[in-house]
C-alpha cells in the first residue's frame, strides 16, 4: 500500500473536513437584533448559504437556551440571501414601521423578550444549536441596541 505525501493529506483534509463540519442548517445566521425601541424588539435571521433552508421545526430562545421555545416554522423555506424577522410587534405593524413589503417574512407576537444582557439562540429542527449571540451592554459596555 502506498502512502500519500503529508502535504497531499493535509490538502485533502483541508478540503474534505469543512464539508462534513457544516450542513444546510449551519447556513442560517443571526444578522441583526434590537432589544427595544419604539417599534419593538426584533431578531433578523439570514440564510448566508447557497442553498434554500427549510425552517420547519427551527426555533428561537433567549438565555434559557431551550430548543423549541419559539417556533420559527412559519418562515417556511428561506432562500439564499433572504432575511426573515422575529419580533414582539404584530407583523403588519412591524412591516409598516420599517417600510417592508409583504414579501418580507415576519413572525410577530414574540413574547420571549430580550434584555440588555441576554442571548439569542437559533436551533434547528433536531434542537441542535445553529447560531448564538451573547451580548451585554449593561455591565460590559458596548453598543446599545435600543431604538
Shape: globular
Secondary-structure element order, N to C: HEEEEEEEHEEE
The count of strands amounts to 10
Tell me the strand percentage band.
25-35%
| Radius of gyration, whole Å | 19 Å
Structural features, described:
- The protein has 147 residues and is an alpha+beta fold.
- The chain is 16% helix and 30% strand.
- Strands 1-2-7-8 form a four-stranded mixed β-sheet, covered by helices on one side. Strands 5-4-9-10 form a four-stranded antiparallel β-sheet, with no helix packed on it.
- It has helices at 6-21, 91-97; strands spanning 28-34, 42-47, 53-54, 59-61, 70-71, 77-78, 83-87, 106-107, 117-123, 129-136.
What are its keywords?
four-stranded antiparallel β-sheet; alpha+beta; disordered N terminus; 147 residues; single chain; 10 strands
Question: Any chance you could write out the topology, listing elements then pairs?
Answer:
Elements (H helix, E strand, L loop, with lengths): L5 H16 L6 E7 L7 E6 L5 E2 L4 E3 L8 E2 L5 E2 L4 E5 L3 H7 L8 E2 L9 E7 L5 E8 L11
Parallel strand pairs: 7-8
Antiparallel strand pairs: 1-2, 2-7, 3-6, 4-5, 4-9, 9-10
A few lines on this structure:
With 147 residues, the chain is of the alpha+beta class. It contains 2 helices and 10 strands.
Amino acid at each position: 500500500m502506498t502512502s500519500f505525501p503529508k502535504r497531499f493529506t493535509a490538502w485533502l483534509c483541508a478540503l474534505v473536513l469543512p464539508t462534513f463540519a457544516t450542513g444546510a442548517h449551519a447556513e442560517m445566521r443571526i444578522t441583526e437584533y434590537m432589544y427595544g425601541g419604539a417599534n419593538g424588539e426584533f431578531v433578523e435571521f439570514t440564510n448566508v448559504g447557497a442553498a434554500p433552508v427549510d425552517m420547519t421545526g427551527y426555533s428561537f430562545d433567549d438565555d434559557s437556551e431551550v430548543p423549541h421555545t419559539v417556533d420559527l416554522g412559519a418562515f417556511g423555506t428561506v432562500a439564499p440571501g433572504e432575511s426573515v424577522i422575529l419580533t414582539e410587534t404584530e407583523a403588519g405593524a412591524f412591516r409598516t414601521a420599517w417600510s417592508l413589503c409583504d414579501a418580507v417574512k415576519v413572525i410577530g407576537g414574540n413574547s420571549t423578550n430580550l434584555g440588555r444582557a441576554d442571548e439569542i439562540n437559533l436551533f434547528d429542527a433536531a434542537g441542535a444549536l445553529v447560531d448564538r449571540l451573547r451580548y451585554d451592554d449593561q455591565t460590559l459596555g458596548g453598543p446599545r441596541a435600543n431604538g
